[in-house]
Write a structure and sequence with these properties.
The strands form eight sheets. The chain has a six-stranded mixed sheet with strand order 1-2-3-4-5-6, with no helix packed on it. A five-stranded antiparallel sheet has the order 7-8-9-10-11, with no helix packed on it. By secondary structure, it is mainly β. The protein contains no helices and 34 strands.
């Protein structure tokens, strides 16, 4: 079908294809539509253009899919655009690649913010609750993340409020590259775990004492011990409270004194309460242990020999040995091997007598002896 029109104004109504009345150009007041198969496919309605709709609501109104090769540009600003590539979409503003969405050849796929690696911060705003805005901000110039109102984070992660780790055995790991150095978390027994994973290194607790940083507690990894008040920078004193006493155990660091039940120890060890020593009752031969102190001997059932441990390496250790019966059976105290007691190879205890013996690191000496008076 072909028509010829001359130059000049013409008045006419709708134009139909002669063999198909459903295919036409529909003219109306401030309205032109290209109709195919009875459907308005392209419409100019006033200042609006519609594709796939007879009543466009916008300057360009497309009721359906749009296909493009690559770019959607902002008029007069060609470096602000959307770009479509195979399995990839990029959003740029002012020539800076802000967002890149890519389905790669295999997982993992990526959504990248600040794809161009420029000084572009990523900000998520909240509604002003909590610590206020921003809800989250990644500072590109410092590679730091602020959360809950922190707009200028001063650490790699800066949170303006509480943090919560949720889940079984929640743990924070500290590492240098691929080497784990420490962890803090909950273990499988629901205990709080603080672990230094580096060989021969410590766990140290410090405080700021009026501007001076001092150490209070050290779990020493180089020496198997727990140290309270490391000497070089200690908090000086150590105190343990009980229900009714603020100084049940007190170490006066500046005076090198220890007090029990006192806040003013006047000697190297000051005990301001009753004292109980380890006691042992024996009725037969017995070898004294390092954990013994007072030994009560009853020889009414037969002769008894008490054998002392070696005096070597225990200078100052003291034992009290008391005979509690008055039978005719013997009670003999023997030192270890060739060691002596008061220069003798043994010591006999008569009925109901007692001795206090002390090691000088080589032999044993009697510092006190009680002999029961005759009946």
């Amino acid at each position: 079908m072909a028509y010829k029109y001359s130059v000049g104004k013409r008045d006419f109504g709708d134009i139909e294809y002669e063999n198909d009345t459903n295919t036409q150009i529909d003219f109306d007041e401030d309205y032109i539509a290209l109709v195919a198969n009875g459907t308005s496919m392209l419409v100019v309605s006033g200042s609006n253009v519609g594709v796939g709709t007879a009543t466009p609501d916008y300057t360009l109104d497309v009721a359906g899919n749009i296909g493009i090769d690559q770019y959607i540009y902002h008029n007069g600003d060609s470096d602000t655009n959307f770009r479509f590539l195979d399995n990839r979409i990029t959003l740029s503003a002012g020539s800076l690649s802000m967002i890149d969405i890519e389905k790669k050849g295999s997982a993992p796929h990526e959504i990248t913010i600040n794809n161009g690696g420029n000084n572009v911060d990523f900000v998520v705003k909240g509604n002003g609750s909590g610590q206020g805005n921003p809800g989250m901000k990644f500072d590109a110039s410092t590679n730091r993340l602020g959360v809950n109102g922190v707009g200028s984070p001063d650490k790699a992660l800066h949170v303006g409020g509480s943090m919560k780790l949720d889940g079984t055995q929640s743990t924070i790991f500290f590492a240098d590259g691929n080497t784990e150095k420490a962890e803090i978390g909950i273990n499988s027994s629901d205990n709080i775990l603080i672990e230094n994973k580096t060989t021969n290194k410590h766990i140290v607790f410090k405080v700021n004492d009026q501007g001076v940083v001092r150490e209070g507690l050290r779990l020493d990894g180089a020496v198997p011990e727990v140290v309270v008040n490391q000497q070089s920078e200690s908090l000086v004193d150590f105190r343990v409270e009980s229900d009714n006493n603020t100084h049940m155990l007190f170490v006066d660091g500046s005076a090198d004194k220890v007090g029990i039940n006192t806040d003013a120890p006047n000697s190297g060890l000051h005990i301001n309460t009753s004292v109980t020593f380890a006691g042992k009752a024996v009725t037969q031969n017995y070898t004294v242990l390092a954990t013994d102190h007072m030994i009560f001997v009853n020889a009414s059932g037969g002769n008894v020999t008490i054998t002392l441990p070696t005096a070597s390496g225990i200078i100052g250790r003291q034992y009290i040995i008391k005979r509690v019966d008055s039978s005719v059976n013997s009670v003999t105290i023997d030192p270890n091997a060739s060691e002596t007691i008061e220069g003798s190879s043994s010591k006999s205890l008569t009925d109901q007598c007692s001795v206090v013996i002390v090691s000088d690191n080589s032999n044993w000496w009697i510092t006190s002896e009680y002999i029961s008076p005759p009946p």
